[in-house]
Amino acid sequence: MNFHILTLFPDMVMQGLGTSIIGRAVNNGLLSIEAVNIRDYAFNKHQSVDDYPYGGGAGMLMQAEPVYQAYEAIAEKVKKKPRVVYLSPQGATFSQTMAELAKEEELVLLCGHYEGIDERVLEEIVTDYVSIGDYVLTGGELPAMVMVDAISRLIPGVLHNDVSAEFESFQDDLLEYPQYSRPEEWHGKKVPPILLSGHHANIEKWRREQSIIRTKERRPDLLEKCMKSGVLDKKEMKFLQELLAKDEENA
Ligand code: ADE
Asked: What is the predicted pLDDT for the residue at 184?
């Protein structure tokens, strides 16, 4: 998979994505990340890429032409019209399901700055509008990095242990169960004995139950979803109903 990030701050994204697991995946050839500097496509001698908005208002806008030329350079290189995500608080909220974009061969992420980008070029090139949450950041670079990270870890081989991508928080709309490592006792807190039992089926059952408890406490909205979607088997539904009944009693 090849990411192409259209940005005014290429160093920021390349530094942020060049280390740790994503950096290693790039070095291993599992994915590529290029940052395309929109300023390289400025069409005036001052290399400026922004101007005042028509109609007045605060701040500056990124102009259409440099963004378009930078996009065209990518489209020419990959020999097709790639999917283009514009990172904006006005987009659909990014989620684990959207990370399925990992199936795309080429993905362009367009980062805005200042007060945004001239609408006309967005109309021409953008295929998806994505936000990473209901807050406003100074630019699209951090959201683009969030997307690259979340998408890349789903690419086979990026996590050394592929099973861990499957069994984590949000798989099945359940949060991940609590985990423990050595020592067996820390600050007077013992590791739950079942985890030391060696009984794999019981451990699995305990973990699923912990996931249900945790999701109920921390993300009741997700629990509603998984009650409807059928990801809980009969015994797990019963376990959940008993928990909810206990909550009722204590209310
Ligand atoms: N650009 C500025 N804020 C953003 C957000 N919350 N998500 C995506 N892009 C943004």
From this structure: 98
